[in-house]
Here is the input.
Amino acid sequence: MLSFFEKIGGAIRSKITRLGAATRLFFSIISYSSDSFKRFNLTIREIYFTGVLSLVIIVVSAFFVGMVLGLQGYYTLQKYGSSEAIGVLVALALVRELGPVVTALLFAGRAGTAITAEIGLMKATEQLSAMEMMAVSPVARIVAPRFWAGIITMPLLASIFSMVGVLGGYVVAVPLIGVDEGAFWSQMQANVDFNYDIVNGFIKSVVFGIACTIIALFEGYDAPPTAEGVSRATTRTVVTSSLAVLGLDFVLTSFMLTV
Amino acid sequence: MQKDLIVSIKDLAFGYAERQIHKKINMNFHRGKVVAIMGGSGCGKTTILRLIGGQIKPTSGHVEVDGQIVHEQGRKGIYELRRKMGMLFQHGALFSDLSVFENVAFPIREHTNLSEEIIKDLVLMKLNAVGLRGANQLMPTELSGGMARRVALARAVALDPDIIMYDEPFAGLDPISMGVICDLIRTLNDALGATSIIVTHDVTETFAFADYIYFIADGIVAAEGSPSDLKKSQLPFVKQFVHSQKDGPVPFHYQANDYLQDLRL
Here is the structure.
């Protein structure tokens, strides 16, 4: 019985320790950020890897998500005779929720895992130690540029996701189903509020960007320097990021709807 | 501190919570010398390099580099000290996303504001010294183990350090590459007027070119001296190590229960 409680206690303590270590890494990144801003080309390189190379998966997913929303939305709305509202439905669903959330989930799967595996392997092959011994901080040179790249990239990817998603919805609703084009766009324009919908969606994507990137970086930086350690860390990145995004989404949405 | 003493280790103890690695280590490294630290696997040889580099802190005692106590330095102080050091890691630890040229240029770019032309000349000179000028555009994955080690050596000496540390420089190399690395360690040390600290367990190569050797066993310096002195040593541990005897003070078997008892006989 005692060992059962010991196990639970040990597990909780290790989670708290890891949370503490991740927080320390976060502050360390902030303190080294001025160094990495001086060499912003490193951050731009990471924006290319995490952002530009994620575009294909983001654009294709967004288009399909938008088309499905168009189909499903039309199916339900036409029962109430308001199929012209399809544009609003697609736009609001994407800008408020699906854009930031699905982008963050895809980001965690595509860019987050790559970041964890890369940093974990750099650690396993002593590249981070070598850098330290050359009096170059790995946090300034490797970690901080990836962190800022993640934060800059996520809102941009989420915006592209929402935009392409709306186009997907349009393709299904207007040319295929035959909803009136004017109604589709004008209702969307009239009912999507800049501050309430778009800014809130933007805030969400920035928060998800911070969460996903710091989780991916910490898991890589903290990974045991073995093949098994890196593989487990990569898996943890996806699981923890996905849960964090969904949990944070609920918290943020509840705040945003009450304010 | 004596004038020609560059690294000095005094009463150093280090261990992790569950295991004491070093009990009381005293070592001195003089300028211009090639000094080897030898001992069986897991005796804490590499840990000594990490203590000298300030990557870990001793539990007691201290390491002094160029008159400064390493573990008392802040982040800035440690980085200042590390600029005087170059380290060759066991498997080279080359940055896999950078070419050979960029790997060697890395410390120069990070710590100086030299023009691109001068950086190019410096890197090619360093690569020429290790015989790999022609390979400067290759990626680390295209190199053999011995070549990677030589590139890492060029990178370690890129800023002409006072102290060059080698972690198992001969591990996993063919005899030709091993000879090349031995030669390079001596030549670079003498050309740069540096001090080389080599962690290794390869007796033949090390005895051929080192100036002084420390043997570590059971967390202390078990023996020390020049290669010729140690070859004549009658100490049982040194004899076992130098003559590659399977059993001796270092037992063949890991500590275990009675064999017959384990087999339930």
About this structure: The mean pLDDT of chain B is 86. The first helix of chain B runs from residue 45 to 52.
